[in-house]
Write a structure and sequence with these properties.
The chain is α/β, with parallel strands linked by helices and 372 residues long. 46% of the residues lie in helices and 19% in strands. The protein has two domains: 172 residues, Rossmann fold, CATH 3.40.50.1970; 190 residues, Dehydroquinate synthase-like, alpha domain, CATH 1.20.1090.10. Helix 6 runs antiparallel to helix 7 and helix 7 runs antiparallel to helix 8. It binds glycine. Glycine binds next to loops.
């Protein structure tokens, strides 16, 4: 077994931590995490579907390092990322005897990572937690940077904390069981880093798209490493999103509106919504005269080569009416004082923060985008 781990450090003073990217990390989880644990017992909050596939390997790995896991399963799917789901996880942790100095492991994709991170942040005023992301999307985005949240009836991720993990273990081997559709959804967030500020990574992704789409391990390893390094750099600059971190929301304001219109159902994965959202951000940038059309076409072509859709009428799980999307965008948590901030781009690798987006122009744009 190849064990050349790649380590990326997230520099946040006393809250700094390492992202370990490598093969066979579940088997080595005990050795990697034992130095962080203050007692053998650790709590694992696991997505039930992930646990069915990988809990035996994780348990054996933790035990091999002298740790004794207590596993708490949560149902897969966005519905678990709710106040009810949060309360249930907290109650189960407390009833199982979790203390503030225990280590809590989040084992699953973005839903479990966001939910467990928030539960850990609230448990007895804040317990330490580790991210063990099992989807590509969670490995390259949601497990890094300390954003934790559950959804409210009024919108996605509306209730949350910045609570940094103490370590992230991104095991490339668990991606073997990831359905192709979820891999493509994760690749949307990978492409995001290239589109924000990394033209070299964009060229790599253009060449590697067929390999990435097919799940080639070497190509995925490079994609995860570059993405995590990019995210770590941006989070270190601006942990609480006062400025630069907002760039990581490229495609997300449009994407969240689509997810909201869909009702967070299985027909539209977060990464799929973000892919369409990024393509829309490029087209809107073109409409504003801020981006050459051929750059927007290159961005869209990469997303399509990675197996993603880029147009609203192509999406399942609609309808996605323009008026509804605009309403959701106005309620996005990035909207301040009725003004909308969008992340737009002046080209591939040149994203920028566009403040005070003009609602009337956006309405016309959305009406055009939503017509099949
Ligand atoms: N996913 C965006 C961020 O972490 O800031």
């Amino acid at each position: 077994m190849v064990q050349d781990d790649h380590r990326v450090r997230v520099e946040l003073a006393e809250r700094s931590y390492e992202i370990v990217i490598g093969r066979d990390l579940l088997a080595r989880s005990g050795a990697l995490l034992a130095p962080l644990a203050r007692r053998p017992r650790v709590f694992v909050v696991a997505d039930a579907a992930v646990a069915a596939l990988h809990a035996p390997a994780l348990k054996a790995g933790l035990e091999a390092g002298g740790l004794a896991p207590i596993i708490i399963e949560v149902q897969p799917g966005e519905a678990s990322k709710s106040m009810t789901g949060l309360e249930a996880v907290l109650d189960r942790l407390i009833l199982a005897g979790a203390e503030r100095d225990d280590l809590i492991l989040a084992f699953g994709g973005g839903v479990v990572g966001d939910l467990t991170g928030l539960a850990a942040g609230l448990l007895k005023r804040g317990a330490r937690f580790v991210q063990l992301p099992t989807t590509l999307l969670a490995q390259v985005d949601s497990s890094v940077g300390g954003k934790t949240a559950v959804n409210s009836a009024a919108g996605k991720n509306m209730i949350g904390l910045f609570h940094q993990p103490v370590m992230v273990l991104a095991d490339l081997d668990v991606l073997d069981t990831l359905p192709e559709r979820e891999r493509a959804a994760g690749l949307a967030e990978v492409a995001k880093y290239a589109l924000i500020d990394d033209p070299d990574f964009f060229s790599f992704l253009e060449g590697a798209a067929p390999a990435l789409k097919a799940g080639d391990k070497a190509a995925l390893a490079r994609a995860v490493q570059v993405s995590c390094a990019s995210k770590a750099r941006i989070v270190a600059l601006d942990e609480t999103e006062q400025a630069e971190r907002a760039l990581l929301n490229l495609g997300h304001t449009f994407g969240h509106a689509l997810e909201r219109a869909n009702g967070y159902g299985p027909e539209l994965l977060h990464g799929e919504a973000v892919a369409v959202g990024m393509a829309m951000a490029y087209r809107y940038s073109v409409a504003l005269g801020r981006c050459p059309p051929e750059e927007a076409k290159s961005a869209e072509a990469l997303l399509r080569a990675l197996g993603l859709r880029t147009r609203v009428p192509e999406l399942d799980g609609g309808p996605y009416p323009a008026a509804e999307l605009l309403g959701h965008m106005a309620h996005d948590k990035k909207a301040k004082n009725g003004r909308l901030t969008l992340i737009l781009a002046s080209g591939v690798g040149r994203a920028y923060i566009h403040r005070d987006a003009e609602i009337e122009g956006l309405k016309v744009f959305l009406e055009r985008e939503c017509v099949g």
